[in-house]
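Team,

Forwarding the record for the chain on the shared tracking sheet. I've put the sequence and predicted structure together so nobody has to dig through attachments.
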Amino acid sequence: MALGSNSLFWFRKGLRIHDNPGLECAAKNSDRLYPVFVIDPHYMEPDSTAFSIGSTRAGLNRIQFLLESLKDLDSSLRNLGSRLLVLKGEPFQVLVRCLKEWDIDKLCFEYDTEPYYQDLDVKVKNYASAAGIAVFSPVSHTLFNPADIIEKNGGKPPVSYQSFLKLIGQPSWASSPLSATLSMLPPVGNVVDCEIASIPTSKELGYGDLEQGEYSPFRGGESEALKRLREALNDKDWVAKFEKPKGDPSAFLKPATTVLSPYLKFGCLSSRYFYQCIQDAYRSVGRHTSPPVSLLGQVLWREFFYTVAFGTANFDQMKGNAICKQVPWSDNDELLVAWREARTGYPWIDAIMVQLRKWGWMHHLARHCVACFLTRGDLFVHWEKGRDVFERLLIDSDWAINNGNWLWLSCSSFFYQYNRIYSPTSFGKKYDPNGNYIRNFLPVLKDMPKEYIYEPWTAPLSIQSKANCIIGRDYPKPVVFHESASKECKRKLAEAYALNHKLNGSVSEQDLFNLRRKLEEDESQKSKSRNLKQKLIIP
């Protein structure tokens, strides 16, 4: 580029310096570089009507994680002779103003597969192209370009993990070392009349403050991400033997996983750098576990869901989603709220939901348990409603992965063995027979004897009194009885699967309505039959 050239790098995800090809391109041959982050009302507008403090789409834990990540990024940029320029407003309008005011020749930003950014980026690229501005948007949030994998598969995304693994091979960049860092960046030019803000606090954004003890223990930022990565990979034996199903979901003082997911979500940690570090660790140990259960396998699960999400219309909903079973889920908001607010009466489930609310994170097997309980296991509530709760409260909430996991765990797609469920009483007990996890997150049950802590309603009243926890007063009774509720869920799913098979997946809203009415009539008939039997038994 000619002397006097100006570049703009637009941060969205990818909140890091290491392995950031878009940032490197923006810096190359540029006299001035404007690193920009836009506080987008689409994600950040406060919502006083939501069930938790935060914006329309995110709870305060995730917003706080983002703000911490921005502070860390700004600090890193300043060490390189630059700084982060924070602006507020609708991103397209903000960018157009900046491109004009700063006389930008080159615009760079990381490629994003989410529908919101796909639409936004088309507008931005079209404007830049018409204005004669060069645009560079590399794929660096994922290991592979999902479009390339879909093309290899004949234009359709692979819908099983194993078929995905057969397609991908090694990433094209994997044979070359990634750029670990930058030594210097071009200075920021004159920002003229653009209103540049400092990185705001959650209070300045209008969210208020989190109460002490009500926030995530995980701090945001690239520095913290790289520190966690070093700590995790330093234990080579742990890396070599990592097997996802064998983790302990009740471990909270020291979680049984890397807890790198929120850093990957925001791009504080490059997934490509993570991949390369795992491969280096494997070379140093020789024998190690393999996908799908290995640590590398977890990175590839992320790629799998990104690819399927990118290539599937309406991936985030049941209606119009070609790979999703059509199921007449219940719209019982009372059960949904009991689950969301940790009032199901099942301590294992409720403790997990309290951890989600407080920390914005829980172990993947804990997520499996509560998702199964809400949908196919016990309550038969629509997976989209559970997805919305996770999307709001998780600090690592990721559009492709969150939707993919809910499709999987509700047996709506990918996994169809709906008879296999997580017990809300016995599953947690395998890992934590004393109930320490429950005692920590549900202190109302801290004095309940371990014999009853997973099923406190079975404790004699004298035991409940001694534990200062009367069931039905201090802690709720179960909202459903697991044994009968799970049987009913299986029956409903069996009928839904049969309907999907009969109609070859082309299930209309009328078909679903008819099936829902049939299931309700069947349940009503069973209830009448039970009542009649009870009357006959009573002398």
